[in-house]
Amino acid sequence: MPKRIVSVLEGIGADPGDPSDLALQKRVLIASSVVVSVFGLCWGLTYIAFGEPLAGAIPFGYGLLSFASLALLAATRRFGAYRTTQLALMLVLPFLLQLSLGGFWLGSAVIVWSFFAPIGALLVASRRSSAVLLVAFVVLVALGVLLQPRLRTSNNLPDVVVAAFLVLNLVGTAAVTYLTMRYFVGQKDRAFALLTAERARSERLLLNVLPGPVAERLKHREATIADRFDAVTVVFADIVDFTPLSSRLGADELVAMLNAVVSDADDTWPAATASRRSGRSATRTWPPPVSPFRVLTTRTPSWTSRWSCCGAPAGSASRAAAAR
């Protein structure tokens, strides 16, 4: 089916406020019903051409009713009514067509098209609806067997046409089922890819706010997160002449400079686990002790940063980092 036609069909009955699963159900049912309707029109014209007007009226009428219900959906946006109509037509009309032609062989086992009703319900309705339609399909098949002795024993279709229709019915139902499932799975994969990208984006934002270990524990739904350390090191950082510097730099340059300073500290002390940042200074806490005094000075043409640390002996301090 050309992409332009598929795009037009996907827009029928679409509502910007639809949840993603409902929007997918609409697209799947509309696309599959259009394909089956085209088959129905062709089947109907063929039966009429071979002198079976009553049999031809059933699939041809299905095609007309299907397109009429599609137009009604476009006008009213009542997807529930459209779904019920389509599933009912798919279930009943092939059974009636088979009876009109004389049963399973003379009707080329056209009732196999009814099996598309429970398959369609599984994709666009619910598992319960699909189970009900599957039971109804089995009942119709059994009823066809019971009525077989009472049906006519011949029709106007040549044996070669009956055999050809048998092959087309089997291949057609398999092809439509496969294409519908393929489209449905493709849309599901697309939705999953978008969800995965959004999840990765949310995780990146979370890691910009919290340390990795804390973020990981939050994802596992820990209500209160607290750790105790017997030895800590507190680092106080100050950017020389930050106030006049901030008045000269743009917002983007200022944030980039602060990010470079903090990243420099992260690279210097990779064991960092928590931080509290402000515009002028940053206070950082680490579990392992470092040397009592250490100064790191970084210079660029426009600014100078100085990191000074004051160490504390083991057992002299403790820290609890909590996040909710």
In short:
With 324 residues, this protein is α+β, with helices and mostly antiparallel strands. Helices cover 62% and strands 10% of the residues.
Secondary-structure class? alpha+beta
Q: Over the alpha carbons, how many angstroms does the gyration radius reach?
A: 35 Å
Per DSSP E runs of 2 or more residues, the count of β-strands stands at: 5
Unreliable stretches covering 5 or more consecutive residues: 271-324
What gross morphology would you assign?
Answer: elongated
Helix content: 55-70%
The mean pLDDT is 76
Helical segment count: 10
Along the chain, the helix and strand elements come as HHHHHHHHEHHEEEE
Q: How would you describe the overall organization of this protein?
A:
With 324 residues, the protein is an alpha+beta fold. It has ten helices and five strands. Strands 2-3-1-5-4 form a five-stranded antiparallel beta sheet, covered by helices on one side. A hairpin with a 4-residue loop joins strand 4 and strand 5. Helix 1 crosses helix 2, helix 2 runs antiparallel to helix 3 and helix 5 packs antiparallel against helix 6. The radius of gyration is 35 Å and the shape is elongated. The C terminus is likely disordered.
